[in-house]
Amino acid sequence: MEGFASMPQNEPPVGRLAPSPTGAQHLGNARTYILAWLSIRSRGGRVVLRIEDIDSPRVKPWAVQQAIDDLAWLGLDWDEGPDIGGPHPPYIQTQRIDRYSAILDRLRDQELLYPCACTRKDIEEAASAPHEAHDGPVYPDTCAGWRVGDSLPESGHFCWRFRSRRQRVSFVDRVAGPQSKVPHAELGDFPVTRKTGEAAYQLAVVADDIAMGITEVCRGDDLLSSTFRQIDLFDALGHPLPQFVHVPLVVGSDGRRLAKRHGDTRLSYFRERGARPESIVGWALWSAGLIESWQPIQPQEFVESFDLDALAAGETIVAPEDYEKIIDASF
C-alpha cells in the first residue's frame, strides 16, 4: 500500500458488523454481514457489533434492536457489542460523542479543518463541481481559504470540512483490487461535522475503528470512494490502515440498489413469513458464488470452507421469485 502503514497481517483479525438503524435490514445487508462475519471467523478472529446511528435525522429508534435481532437470527455472533459489552464501550455511536469531539480538536490543531457555510444548493450550482457517483458534487473550495485566527461563521450555520489530500492515494482492496484517486480533485474536501456540530459519518467510523482495534473493514462496494476519505483521516491521526474488503452489492432486477420498489426484502418480513435463516444464508453464499447449489446452511457450518478469493465478481440481481424460494426453501 503506497505511502501508508498497514495493520500486521500475522495476528488474528478484528472485524465489525456495523448496521445503521435508518430502517429495516434487508437481503443485501444480510449478505454483506454474512461475508464479513465469515471472513473474520474463518481466520480465528474477533467480531465487534457496532450500531452506526450517527445519522440522527434518519435513525428509526425501533431499528436498533431489530438489527441486533436480525443478525442473531441469521446465526451470526460477536465478541463485543451493545448487548454483551466488551473492552471498548460504548458500542452505539450516539453514546461516543465526547470521543469524536476529542478527535475534532486534534484535527483542528493540525489545521486540517476549516469552517464551511455553503449550502447543498451552493455547491451544486458551482460550475466547477463535477459529480462523483454516490458522493454528490465535488466541493469547489469556496471556504477553503479560511485560516486559524479568521472569524467563524454564525454558530449553527457551518460545518467543519477536512482538507483532503492533493496527492494520489492508492490502496489494494482485498476483493475490488487496486484502487487509486486524487482525493481533492476527484472527491473534494468533505464534512467531518454537521452544521449542528455533531460528528459526521466519515469521522465517526474512523474514530471508532481506531478505538476498537478494527483491522478489517468489510462492506458493500458502494462505499469504495469513502475509503479514500477515511484513509486521509487514518493518516492524519497517525494510525495504520485496516485491510479493506469491498464486496459486490445485491441489486433489484432494474440494476438499482434494493429499495421498496423491489418488493419487501426486509429480514423481518422473511422471519414473519416463516423463512428459515439457513435459507437466507444459503442464498447469500450461492449468490456470492461460494457454493455450487442453493441449499440451507448455517454460517458456522461454512467457516472452514470460506474462501474470499472465490467470491463472484459483479452485482447480484435478486427478484421477487427469489423471495418466495427463500420462504418456501424451494431450491
TrEMBL record:
Residues 16-282 form the Glutamyl/glutaminyl-tRNA synthetase class Ib catalytic domain. InterPro entries: Glu/Gln-tRNA-synth (IPR000924), Glu/Gln-tRNA-synth_Ib_cat-dom (IPR020058), GluQ/Sye (IPR049940), Rossmann-like_a/b/a_fold (IPR014729). Its EC number is 6.1.1.17. Residues 1-22 are annotated as: Disordered. One of its GO terms (cellular component) is cytosol. Belongs to the class-I aminoacyl-tRNA synthetase family. This is Glutamate--tRNA ligase. It comes from Rosistilla carotiformis.
